[in-house]
Specification:
Number of domains: 3
CATH architecture of the largest domain: 3-Layer(aba) Sandwich
Strand content: 15-25%
Order of helices and strands: HEHEHEHEHEEHEHHHHHEHEEHE
Mean pLDDT: 92
Structural class: alpha/beta
Number of helices: 13
């Protein structure tokens, strides 16, 4: 394992759970020490020492250092199969050109936390794990990486490297761009003396959840996939202009069809995560800022055998507390959950996940 931050340490923990011996190295001693403390890796003294006897090397380096690190691994002594977990693929595949030992990889998962101390062996359960073999990739090495990703609970999907970068530009990188645009536009605006951020509703919070993500990571991603991002932003601009035109023309029919199409597309997305997204209910619970609130709510729902499909906590301030969003399957179960929480003094709003927001 080369690189022992959150992603590298998570891969290492999952591999150890599989029964593998994992040796790790990181150019940052503190990061390596944290991974060793988590019992994720046995430490190596150098990159060369880490890869010399390995069967499989996973490179989990930042995007700006990824191509050089992969090249260094391929040039080091040993005949290991080499893969990576970088979120862009064209540049690293190009850097490894000519080597049959390299299979580019990208697990579609992650966390808003950082560091080996927050690593999880279960991070890859149910995730898509893109693989980018090329014509000269050794088929046996491709099968090795494919099997490794499967054993970690992911679903391997082969894709061309350039197609991968166009796809993630649309599904990941552009959403981050737009979240930053919306957050910055809102923060820079005053409406007759009123500060919009001080009166933000759930829609703005939902749309900007990923705004301000770690610039050490995201600046490099934006620059490495600049062509793909620019192409998708141009298409986004074209679609915004269509909406602007419909608003200028008072075209209610277009707007209704546009919203309906978005609803259908969102359902298609959610169907991958949930068997029946139409049955999924959202509970928004206003919670105070005090220790034990989240644990108390989850334990109370668990005691009543109400299954929580997912949840997210948004903190506003120590004075105002925050909003806990809980997803529950079934209108009946959602109502049971709401009744239970209201009996404990919480304010609860229930809505269908597919209905979006009724905020005005």
């Amino acid at each position: 394992m080369i690189g022992t931050g959150l992603m590298g340490a998570s891969v290492a923990l999952a591999a150890r759970r599989r029964g593998d011996d994992v040796v790790g190295w990181d150019p940052e001693p503190d990061a390596l020490a944290a991974a060793v403390a988590r019992d994720a890796v046995e430490p190596a003294a150098s990159l060369e020492a880490a890869v010399e006897s390995a069967e499989l090397v996973i490179v989990a380096a930042p995007i700006a250092q990824l191509t050089a690190t992969v090249a260094a691994v391929l040039a080091a002594p040993g005949e290991a199969t080499v893969t990576d977990v970088g979120s862009t693929k064209s540049s690293v595949v190009h850097a490894a050109a000519g080597s049959s030992r390299f299979v580019g990889g990208h697990p579609i998962c992650g966390s808003e936390t950082r560091g080996a101390e927050n690593a999880s062996a279960g991070l890859f359960e149910g995730a898509t794990w893109f693989l980018t073999p090329v014509a000269h990739t050794d088929p046996d090495r491709h099968r090795l990486v494919h099997g490794f990703a499967s054993d970690l609970g992911a679903t391997p999907v082969a894709i061309d490297a350039e197609a991968h970068d166009r796809l993630v530009a649309l599904t990941s990188h552009v959403p981050h761009v737009l979240a930053n645009v919306i957050a910055n536009q809102t923060g820079a605006t005053r409406v007759e003396g009123h500060e919009p951020l001080a009166h933000a509703g759930g829609s703005l919070r939902d749309m900007t959840r990923i705004a301000g993500a770690n610039p050490r990571i995201w600046v490099d991603i934006f620059l490495d996939n600049a062509a793909g991002i620019r192409a998708e932003l141009a298409e986004h601009r074209r679609r915004i202009e269509q909406v602007e035109h419909a608003l200028g023309q008072g075209d209610a029919g277009y707007l209704a069809r546009w919203i309906g199409e978005a609803s259908t597309n969102r359902r298609r997305m959610l169907e991958r995560e949930y068997p029946d997204p139409g049955d999924l209910q959202r509970l928004r619970v206003h919670v105070p800022d005090r220790p034990g609130v989240l644990a108390g709510i989850t334990q109370a729902l668990g005691a009543e055998r109400i299954n929580i499909e997912d949840f997210e906590l948004h903190h506003v301030s120590p004075e105002r507390g925050g909003t806990l969003t809980v997803l529950v399957a079934g209108a009946g179960e959602a109502q049971r959950a709401a009744t239970l929480l209201e009996s404990q003094g919480y304010s609860v709003v229930v809505s269908s996940v597919l209905e979006g927001s009724d905020e005005s």
